[in-house]
Amino acid sequence: MINTEVEQEELMTLLVAVARSDRQAFQRLYEKIAARMFGLCFKLAGQQELAEEALQDAFVQIWHHAGEYHSDRGSPLSWMLTIARYRTLDLMRARTVRRTAGDEHLEHLEDPRSGPLDHSLRRAGAEQLTGCLDELSDVQRDSILLSYYRGFTHDELAQALSSPIGTVKSWIRRGLMALKRCLER
Amino acid sequence: MKKTPERIESLAAEYVLGSLKGKARNRFERWMMESGRVRQEVWYWEEKLGQLGDRVPEREPPESVWLAIQHRLWPQQEKSLAPRQAANRIWPAWSLLATAAALVLAVLLVQQPAPEPTLSGAIVQADVSDPLWLVSESGRDNRLRLRSVAATSAEAGKDYELWIVPDKGDPLSLGVIPVGDVYHVELTDEARETLSQSRTLAISLEPRGGSPTGAPTGPILHVTKLYEL
Fold first, then answer.
1. Backbone dihedral angles phi then psi of residue B133, each to the nearest 5 degrees
2. Each residue of A35-68: pLDDT tens digit?
3. DSSP state of B57
4. What are the Cα distances from residue B147, in Å, to A56, A61, B133, B152, B215?
5. Are A121 and B55 inside 8 Å of each other by CB?
6. Domain ranges of chain B
7. Distances (CA, A) of B180 to A166, B83, B87, B148, B183
8. Residue of B nearest to A64 (CA)
9. Last residue of some domain: A62, A95, A128?
10. Which of A45, A136, A185, B150 could form a disulfide with A51 if both were Cys (CB 3.0 to 4.6 A apart)?
């Protein structure tokens, strides 16, 4: 897991070198974070090929845009993971990747404190967010997590949670605002 | 729609989450271009929601992704290794394949319905309209079939050699492939297992009769990813 300050510092150094078109630094960066990033893409896409394509695109973008990173955009790692996540979502939309409502991941997400997602709770930042997630109602939290981890559309959420679209939309909106109020406390 | 603080707040969160879609997403991207305040709000959420990404388990991507990235970023290196110019170059190690591989993603081919999932694909070259070779695999008798379509002969004294590129470890030779003919190769259980995991084939240019070392020694001309039918 890359989450210590030392490792973020190392990623920052690599990113600066990549911005200067240093190919070796780019390769080291890839070796350091590709598995992390691919895990996220795969979780989101739920399929290997699309995840591979997203990972590829994300690194091509990182090569071209490394110089645009700045600390307002979060840690270097979170900036790069965000690029990969958006790219995966774009590809999913373009292909209209569909999942079935009986998705295995639903079970894990219904209670984020159990199941394989649990490991990373170790990280302080995630704990902070998770602490706030716990303040949301179950449906608000599930809607947000399903959107984040699985890229569910409003339609898919409505189906998965057996509720009208309007209701799902409002769960997400209110959940996110409640999350922000909590994070700002 | 006016950019009220409440709207910015709520739309930025939904934008980052991914639930903002279609026209609304495009409109919001325009807002981001126009306003630093909007971008700040987006960055806030990217950082906060990004923490959720830490909870996802790692997954090792196949080697072919790194090859493809390099191919896209530095295609000129591939050109310098096109068969004619690069025939005399000797490649010291397979690990260097990455910088020069002419990686082309296979085109999905429509085939007769098969009794069980089989791998299929094509080895193509950007400037040639027909595929060089078509590849198909039969799960029943563990055979890989390579039909040469637009492939041209290797230059004098050289042969093309076919390899399975595993997700990890050294490539596995499938022998020298003829041009203008159909080539069948029987896969060992190990080879079939490796191929079904990585689904990646490569073709290198070797001295006549194939690589003398058991590992690719010449330039890697093509890397292709097969698809499951």
1. -135, 150
2. 999 999 998 998 899 999 999 999 999 999 999 8
3. P
4. 29, 36, 5, 12, 23
5. yes
6. 5-55, 63-228
7. 61, 17, 21, 5, 9
8. B73
9. A95
10. A45
